[in-house]
TrEMBL record:
InterPro entries: Glyas_Bleomycin-R_OHBP_Dase, Glyoxalase_1_CS, MeMalonyl-CoA_epimerase, MMCE/EMCE_epimerase, VOC_core. The lineage of its organism: unclassified sequences, metagenomes, ecological metagenomes. It holds the Pfam family Glyoxalase_4. Residues 53-185 form the VOC domain. GO terms for biological process: L-methylmalonyl-CoA metabolic process. It comes from freshwater metagenome. The keyword Lipid metabolism does not apply. The keyword Disulfide bond does not apply. This is Unannotated protein.
Length: 188
């Protein structure tokens, strides 16, 4: 198809298609630069203390065994850890994506009861990504910094998470619509 034929086809099927051309003579008189309270002396953002990387991505699933089988069969991933967390109301499996011990894992989360947070998530959104977890060196310092930046935590104090870790969550409304988990791994 020649270029002129393609353009004609686009105009015929998409008659409201318009192109905007940048006009450097039509700029606003004033540009406002927004800053946050979480900036350093040079105006650069200050990293939340103690974040050392992404720990895992939590995926809500209705059936843990079916989900584990899927990730093993389709991707060849292995289960690194399994447990039941009665306090959180979930059965979970940490899925090892690659060979490194400090890499990002997938956390499969299945509800134990219809009242659990994961069951409510599944009812509302269906299976899929439920959370993003950052690994921190000190959960208490990270939580204090989150509060100092005006963000809400779901728990007053950290709770026990997977494999003896300490966790807390930043409210999604304060984290760009994402449920963010802070994870301090258990000392081994």
């Amino acid at each position: 198809m020649r270029c002129s034929s393609l353009v004609g086809s686009v105009i015929r099927y998409y008659p409201v298609l318009t192109l905007k051309v940048f006009d450097p003579t039509n700029l606003p008189d004033k540009i406002t630069v927004m800053s946050t309270q979480s900036s350093g002396p040079s105006g650069s953002p200050v990293r939340l203390p103690g974040i050392i990387g992404v720990d895992h991505i939590g995926i809500a699933v209705p059936d843990l065994e079916v989900a584990i089988a899927f990730y093993q069969e389709k991707f060849g991933f292995e289960v690194a850890h399994r447990e039941v967390n009665e306090e959180q109301g979930v059965a979970e499996a940490m899925i090892q994506v690659g060979p490194a011990s400090h890499e990002v894992k997938l956390q499969l989360l299945a509800p134990l009861t219809p009242e659990s947070a994961i069951a409510r998530f599944l009812d509302k959104s269906g299976p899929g990504i439920q959370q993003l977890a950052y690994r921190v060196t000190n959960i208490e310092i990270a939580c204090a910094s989150v509060r100092a930046r005006g963000m809400r935590l779901l728990y007053e104090s950290p709770r026990r998470g997977t494999a003896g870790s300490l966790i807390n969550f930043i409210h999604p409304k304060d984290a760009g619509g994402v449920l963010v988990e802070l994870v301090q791994p258990a000392a081994h």
